[in-house]
Structures are given as C-alpha cells and as structure tokens.
Amino acid sequence: MKRIGIIFMITALLLGGAFTYGPQRPETSFAAAAKGELRGIWVSVFDLPKLGLNASNEAAFIKNADQFLTDAKSNGINTVFLHVRAFDDAIYPSKTFRRNQYVSSSYDPLQLMIQQAHKKGMELHAWMNPYRLDYNYYLDPAQASTSERIKKAVSEVMAYDIDGIHFDDYFYHAEKGYKNVNGTITIQKEQEPSPPVKRANVNAMVSSIYSYIKTKKADAVFGISPQGSLENCRLGGADIDRWISQSGYVDYLMPQIYWSNQWGSKADRAMFSERIAEWKRLNNGRKTLYAGLALYRTGTAISDDPGWMKKSTNLKDQVQILRSSGLAGYTLFSGQDLYRSAAQKELSQLRVLLGLETAPSVPKPIPAQALQVSASSYNSLKLSWKTLPGVSGYQIYRAASKGGTYKKIKTIDKAQTSTYKDSSLVSGKSYYYKIRGYKGSQYGAFSTVKSGTPKPSAPKISVKAGKRSAAIKWKKISGANGYVLYRAAGTKGKFKTIRTIKSGSTIKYTNKKLAKKKKYTFRMRAYRLVKGKRVYSGYSSKVTVRIK
C-alpha cells in the first residue's frame, strides 16, 4: 500500500481519535506531524525547462532529474506530482495525444522520472488537467466522449508504475467556451450550465475515473486539488460536498490554500487559517485532507496579500497550522521555486521545522543597561546602544506607554550601527522603546524598556558685562517659541526669572540697572508651546560676569 493510501486508511479508522478538532493552536506551537505525512511538490510542464527536464538526450535528463529530486528530498519532499497532461497532450509517448512542447521526443520523461523517484524512496503521482485544451477552450464536460477521452489518458498513464492519479481543479474555467473531442464548439462561455448541472457532469467523469483506477491498480490513489474557496469550487463544477461525504469519487482532496495570514490591504486578516478552518469543518474527518501551499508567492510583493513579504516563516507557520488542524500533509507549488532566491529564507525555516536543518544560533540578549534614550530636538529623540558581536543588525520598537503595544519602527541592517534618531515626534510627549539584535531570522531578547520626551535643545549663552548692564546673546533654537532668562546674585544666589522672551527668533537681550562691581550669574532655557502649554528645554550652562 502506498503512502497516501495508508494515510487514507488511518484517517478512516481513527476518526475522532487520531486528530483533535478543537480550537486552533497558536502558530508558534509545534504540532506533531501526521504519521506518514505527505510532503509533496507539483512539477508543472512550465517547470520542466527551468529544471533541465527538457534535455535533448536521456543521459542529461537523468542527471537533471536526479539533481532535482535530491534537492527536493533535502527540503523534506517525499512525493512528486508530475504534470503529464496539461492541454489535452502528454509528456510521454502516446498514440492518442500530441507530445507536450516542453519535453523531448527522444525518450520517455515519465518513465525516467518514475524510476529516479522510486530509487530515492519517493512517490510519483501523475498530475492531469482533465478538460483543458488551451486557455480559451476546454473539452465539454457534458459530452460522454469527453469522459472517454480523459479515461484514455488515465489508462495510458496507468500502464506505468505510478503511485496515483491527481487532477487539477480546471473544470468549467474556459475563457471562451467548450468543444467536443472533434474540436467543434458545443457551447460558448456565456452558455455554461447552472452550478448543479456542472457538478453533475463533472461527477459522472470523476466517479468513472475512480472506478477505473481501482479496477486497474487497487493501491493507486486518486485525488483532486480544488480551489481554496469552497464557494468557488461549487460554482466551477467541483462537487466537494459529495466527494467528501460519499465513497466512489476520490481518496483525498488537496485544496490550494494560497493565502498568507496577513492578507488584505491592511494585512489584518488571517486568511490562511480561515480557509483551513473552513475545509476542516466541511471535511469533519471523513476524507484524507492535504493542503496546497504557495511556495511561488514566498518573498514576493503581492498588493492584496502583503504577508508574503512581511514574514519569512509563512510556510513554517502554515505547516504547523495544518498539522494542528488534523491535515495529513501538504504540497508546494511549484518545482522551479525550490531554486528561487526570494524563497530561500522560507525554505530554510521549513527545513528547521522538519528537523532537516539546525536553526542559527540566537544572538545574545542586549543587556538591560545598553539602550539609552535622550532628547535630540523639540521633535526627535536619540537612541544609543552597545553593539553586539555576531548579529546582522537591530530592530527598534516603540510604544506610547510602558505597558502599551510596541510596534517595530526601524530595522537597522548594519551590526556596527549604535545610534538612531527617531523624528517627527510631539514635544512633551513621552515615548517608550526597546531594542533587540537579530541574525537572519533569529532574534535576541529585548532590552529593558527606556523612555524619552522630545523637547527643545538647551540654549548656549554668552554674557558681556557693560556699564551697569549685561548683554546676553544666544543662537536661535529650532522649534522654540520663546526663552526664559534667569539671574542670580553672585555665584551661589537663588535664580529668579528676569525676562520671558515670547519670540523664538529673538537672539539677544540686555539686562540693565545692575549694581556696579557686583557679580551676577545668568542661565536660560527655551520653550515650545504645545496645546497652549510650555515644553521646556534643559538649562543652559551658567555664565558669571562682574558688572562695570
């Protein structure tokens, strides 16, 4: 019995016992994998040139296939879903179907891939698009001859030592219309039947294919990979409700859950978790359920699904979610993305979860005393810290209160940087910060929270003694609305306010009627008005002069 078949039997026998269908665990929990967990990868006909699987000779094909399968296995893959029928064609030699344009005609890619996969202990399933002729036209599912043509393709593939047949969910999805097997248009797109009729037409084909497969090879499995949206499945002719509730249609379903958990323009919807929960409720443990995962989206900017750029642990988190939800495995789309540079961080995190790679060491926590916060100007604060050896950089978080919600405001990508200026702040308002080092996708502990309050810079004054007077000068302070000047008798006297200057652009003042030959000490501070209240700078340095 092959792996998927074993999982199917285990699921059927252990309903309510093998898996727990309670509240979903947090993404950070480490749920156990299902016994014999399926870890697949789809290899599309469009992947073949990228993987060198369109090589002109058999020896080159075997070399490239071996390399791809080795790389796939190093990422935990144990099952390959090879695209054998994409557009009513075949990647293998066929007496009925034309040869797919992406393969060589000098050898049999299907036979060689099966041999190479089995040598490595991997399963190989034949992936088919049953109806699609091209993007504009599909075979008409209502025609009995259509089902017979699909069965012919299945019969040819069943002659190989394959482990299963896998259908993609392209049923009623033509752009322009539908044709019979002779190429005559039978209905236009706008003439499509109602959803119930669509499902009935597709069901007739699916049930006949299921029966045929089981007759020819009892341990071969048959499954379908429908869209991730339940309603879209039903509208497009995929009778997922019947396939789950009744026998004689499929051994498993593998919905394509191609969302992140930071979906939407605001990245605030856990769409992946929502879809998994919907399928779990619908299935209720009755059929083996896998999930198709969007390897092709990792590290990619997608306007309505920014989570793929915001995190590098999407796949790792998703596998934990589907495990905790009782799913029996997953398949990644697609083969060429194993080598895409933007996907490597995600794949590394997934390998760590699967125990195939050791997580990088976590940087040492930043000591509690390392972070310091001080006013830099009326609307900015300066953060400084001690650098750490062995880190890639630092992440800075800020909150409006010590116990408030901290949001990341800056990622410093240079390990030797030790300062940061946080600007565009409000004078007189307190801000709270913490910082941590990171290396790759691993993070150190946060520093102790430190706070600061933006305020105007302290003035620097100069004082020149005159005849019974003192001339005080200073430079204009950015953001100041005014200044307060203080004076004390001698060097140890008590300071008193002698002048409030209500203009931030004023830069001098003369204090008159002072006592001859006496010493006076002066100091000043600037202020900024915020909602009618003064936010003061620190005091300037004291300056003492003897009056003439």
From TrEMBL:
Pfam families, per the entry: GHL10
NAD recorded as keyword: no
SUPFAM superfamilies hit by this protein: (Trans)glycosidases, Fibronectin type III
Protein name per UniProt: Family 10 glycosylhydrolase
Domain of life: Bacteria
InterPro entries noted in UniProt: Divisome_Glycosyl_Hydrolase (IPR052177), FN3_dom (IPR003961), FN3_sf (IPR036116), GH (IPR017853), GHL10 (IPR003790), Ig-like_fold (IPR013783)
PANTHER family the UniProt entry points to: GLYCOSYL HYDROLASE DIGH
Ranges for domain Fibronectin type-III: 367-457
Keywords for this protein: Signal
